[in-house]
Amino acid sequence: MSCRGCRLNELLIEIKAEGAFNRNLLREATGHVRFRNALLQQTEDETVTIDEIGARELADFCSHHMDIEGIWFRLPEGPWKPMHELAAVLETKWVDKLIAEQRVAIHFQIIVDAQERVHAYEALARFVDDNGSLLYPNEVFTAARARGRLYALDRLCRLQAVQAAVPLRTKTFINFIPTSIYSPEFCLKSTVELAARLNIDPSLFVFEVVETEKTEDLEHLKHILTFYKNKGFHYALDDVGEGFSTVEVLAELKPHYMKLDRKYVQGVAGDEPKQRTAELFLQTALRIGSVPLAEGIESREDFEWLKQQGYELFQGYLFGKPSLIPNSQQEGRHAHAESSYVASYDTGRSQ
After folding, report:
1. Which of 150, 191, 202, 302 is a good FRET partner for 99, with 20 to 30 A between their CA atoms?
2. Which pLDDT tens digit goes with each residue over 178-230?
3. CATH no. of 102-343
4. pTM
């Protein structure tokens, strides 16, 4: 079996035309790109498969001479999109190089328990461009998604997180994008093998569903989580109120951890609607046996309110900002505490 997104092969683009006028001009244009050896395939239904250089030429021709509203493109096995969106895809070629060169660094952020003892660190993936300047994670993931490289980027971050956990030998939370995983038995094989090769107990890893990647295929998500569970891993759900709205669904998924999103956390001490959401979230987590974690805490008032309600774990600027190396002062201050290591990547947000 070969996974669609495993390798950074040359990006091939399918283009099709609607209407007699567009089809006639497309035949004329493809004769030119065929001469340039850019055209790889042309079918009887007027669909052509072309490389990026040829696609750029063809896009220019279409915009100047054809009815652009009747021209469509897609990446292999992806949905058809209007031709005017192709330029944005062609401009994301840089993300291939970033992935190939593994230009990702893990930053750490503290997670504490109700007594403000270190319980974990969350590691956020940060990326750099050719010049060493930082790139926003949202920019990188958006480019990878547009280019069909989401699995390759997700896999890179996942493996880097596992590798980073080696010296700590403690619990590790690793975010993952369920929509990028076609078959967990195959796509997650490298993660399982790396953990085994590094001699790390799989129960030390907690895989967390990325909040911004809401899956519409619940059965597929259950398949992935079952795979993790059968391999000895734990898993967590983030931003539960958005993607998984019923107690029945949550009970079926049985997450080991549930995270309350920052939008319900920040200002909760003085906001009754947020308080009702936080209370309902807590009740749901406890009812299904999940550990509740509140993220994005920046004020002591919010921390104290959530703690009084019964929340168990907390994360946010109040306790520390992300840094390349866990703050030594924090480690010294909390040396007696149970320590875990949480590795994840976000899509542009900071705690």
Report:
1. 202
2. 877 767 777 688 888 888 898 888 888 888 887 544 666 778 888 888 888 89
3. 3.20.20.450
4. 0.81
